[in-house]
Specification:
It is built from twelve helices and twelve strands. By secondary structure, the chain is an alpha/beta fold.
């Protein structure tokens, strides 16, 4: 019976992907409800549960963002990732409020992640920044609040996210430890449930853990099969810190060509064996090695397909075949900050 359900799920996903169905969402929801799955969760080091697959929303704007978040919530996603930098928090808050008001979901069922942007690193700015994001998201608390990077940038206004001086990013020397200590107060106030960081290297994360009062529950980093960062992952495993993988499919922009591994013979063989797409194989690999991928998706078929990775597991030998692609190739280098003392790469 389970095998038959999984087979139907695959057929539905492939059909949606192949023909890029333009049907209305009501029809799609009827289809998805035949076998709607929720992603499993992992228990964080403070006891809260975090779904092991989320929706990334970087570069999702206007109606594309609203539709993607609505489709995601109604097809089973319970983990939404955003940031002040993305300038879409208000859109996500609008959709979330509408879904809650309609009785389709409860606030407690959604694990909402956002990030403190670099212009708010000065400790006295942290509380106001968080309150502003709470208003934009139209929620009373944030499930996971991340420091977006260890690099502080001078504040000019809420709209100037990357101020420049003399044609260079105008950074400051605020210690990320001081920023994090201000973030810890947000937990004490009940505005934030969990804290974490993003784009930190191993030494920076270790320094933070050695000096903080509230241990970070998560680290969010670029991670895909061409950039696994094993030493950092092993350290996080030792410290019981969850690792979220952004750009997990290795193609953050549709304008970029597909990475070569999508046509790799061995990956295609694995794809055929499990009746899954290469993208699903890649996402499953990341989950199997303990990561929490947050792929961005705007189309209904992609949203549905990304969620259908919990009915199979890759074998050790199959994971080894994907491991050969780990070449340390970084997509995001944040080179504007490369001369800063806390530049992580």
């Amino acid at each position: 019976m389970l095998a038959e359900i999984c087979k139907k799920s695959f057929i539905i996903g492939v059909t949606l992907c192949r023909y890029r169905v333009k049907s209305n969402f009501t029809n799609l929801r009827t289809i998805c409800n035949l076998n709607m799955k929720l992603a499993p969760t992992v228990k964080l080091n403070n006891g809260y549960e975090m779904p092991v697959l989320g929706l990334g929303t970087y570069e999702l704007k206007k109606s594309k963002c609203e539709n993607a978040v609505r489709y995601a919530l109604e097809t089973g996603y319970r983990h939404i990732d955003t940031a002040y930098l993305y300038r879409n928090e208000a859109l996500i808050g609008k959709v979330l409020s509408e879904e809650i008001s309609a009785g389709k979901i409860q606030r407690e069922q959604v694990f909402l992640v956002t990030k403190l942007w670099d212009i708010y690193h000065e400790p006295f700015r942290v509380l106001d920044a968080c309150r502003m994001q709470l208003r934009l998201l139209n929620v009373e608390y944030i499930d996971l609040y991340l420091m977006h990077s260890p690099v502080g940038v001078n504040y000019l206004s809420d709209d100037d996210l990357m101020p420049h001086r003399n044609e260079e990013l105008w950074t400051n020397n605020v210690d990320y430890l001081d920023t994090y200590r201000a973030m810890e107060k947000l937990v004490e106030m009940g505005l934030v449930r969990s804290l974490g960081v993003s784009n930190f290297n191993l030494a920076q994360l270790q320094r933070l853990i050695d000096n903080c009062h509230i241990k970070p529950v998560a680290l969010q980093i670029e991670c895909h099969i061409e950039l696994i960062q094993w030493p950092l992952l092993k350290y996080c495993e030792t410290e019981n810190i969850a690792v979220t993988a952004y750009s997990p499919l290795g193609r953050p922009k549709l304008s970029k060509p597909l990475p070569d591994y999508y046509t790799d013979v061995q990956i295609l063989e694995i794809s055929k064996k499990y009746e899954k797409s290469p993208a699903q194989i890649v996402l499953r690999y990341l989950v199997d090695i303990g990561l929490i991928p947050i792929p961005k998706a705007a189309q209904i078929n992609h949203l549905f397909e990304n969620l259908q990775i919990f009915d199979f597991t890759l074998s050790v030998s199959e994971r080894q075949k994907l491991e050969k692609w780990n070449k340390g190739l970084r997509i995001w280098k944040f080179e504007k900050a490369k001369y800063h003392q806390y530049y992580p790469y």
